[in-house]
Amino acid sequence: MRLEGKRVIITGGSTGIGAGVAQRFLKEGAKVSVWCRNPDNAKAVAQELPGLTHVAAVDVADAPGVDVAFAESLEALGGLDVLICNAGISIRNNFVDIDREEFDRVMRVNVHGVFYVSQLAARHMQAQENGGAILITASTSGVTAYRYYADYNASKGALLAMMRTMAIELAPKIRVNAVNPGYTMTPMQEAEYSPEMLQRVNGIIPMGRHARPEELASLFVYLASDEAAYASGGVFTLDGAESVASGAATL
Ligand SMILES: NC(=O)c1ccc[n+]([C@@H]2O[C@H](COP(=O)([O-])OP(=O)(O)OC[C@H]3O[C@@H](n4cnc5c(N)ncnc54)[C@H](O)[C@@H]3O)[C@@H](O)[C@H]2O)c1
Which residues line ligand 1 (CB under 6 A)? Predict the structure, then answer.
C-alpha cells in the first residue's frame, strides 16, 4: 500500500498505460479519478475497475470542459495529491503530408491539454499544506527523432520543456516529473501495427519486446509515492535500452 490515501487524477486512464496505472494505483491504496475522452470508455472503465472513486468523460483540449471535470474530481476525491497527465494522441504521417488540422489537433491534445489540467492542479496543490506531485507521460520521441511523427515528436519535446520549467517554479511544494515510455503495447500501437511491423520494431529494441503497461505503472507508483520525495525535474525513461541502442556500433 505505497499510495495509501493519495488522491489521484489520471487522464487517458481508460486504456493502455493509463488503465494499467489506474489498476495498480487502486491496489496501492490510492483514491482515483479517471478521465476519458470517450463516454463509452468511461462506462467500461467504471465497470472494469469498480474501486474507482470517480470517472469523467472529457476532452482535455477543451478548456471549459477541463474546468468542470477538475472541479468534479476534486469534489469526489476530497482534494488532489497526484496528477498524472497521460492522455495523448499520435497520427502517422510524412512531414510533408501532415495537414494543419492534424498538427493543431495533436498539439491541442498533447500540449494544451497537459497545460490546462496541470495548471489547475498546480494552483490547487500550491494552496495546500502538503503540496503534491505532477507526472507527465511524455515519450522517448520528445528526445529522439522518429520518422512519420513530426507533430507528435514536437508535442512530446514541448512537454519535457514545460515539465522542466514547472519543476523549478513549483518546487519545493510540488514535484514535477516526466515519464518517457519507449514502445509499449497498447491500443495506440496495436492500431498501427501489422505482424511484420511488430516483429521489426521488437528487433530494434535490445530487450527484444515492447513494454507492458504494468511495467510503466511500477515507475508511476514510485514517482507518485513519498519514496520519491527528492525526485523532481526528472525524465524517467523506460524503453528496454532502445534509445541508447540507436547509433550503437554493431559488431
Ligand atoms: N504506447 C506507446 O508506445 C507509447 C510510447 C511513448 C509514449 N506514449 C504515451 O503514453 C500515453 C498513453 O498512451 P497509450 O499508449 O496508453 O495509448 P492509448 O491510446 O491507449 O491511451 C491514450 C489515452 O488518451 C485518451 N485521449 C486521447 N485524446 C484525448 C482527449 N482529447 N481528451 C482526453 N483523453 C484523450 C484516449 O482515450 C486514451 O485512453 C500517451 O500520452 C502516449 O503519447 C505511448
Answer: 11-12, 14-18, 36-38, 41, 59-61, 86-90, 109, 137, 139, 181, 183-184, 186-189
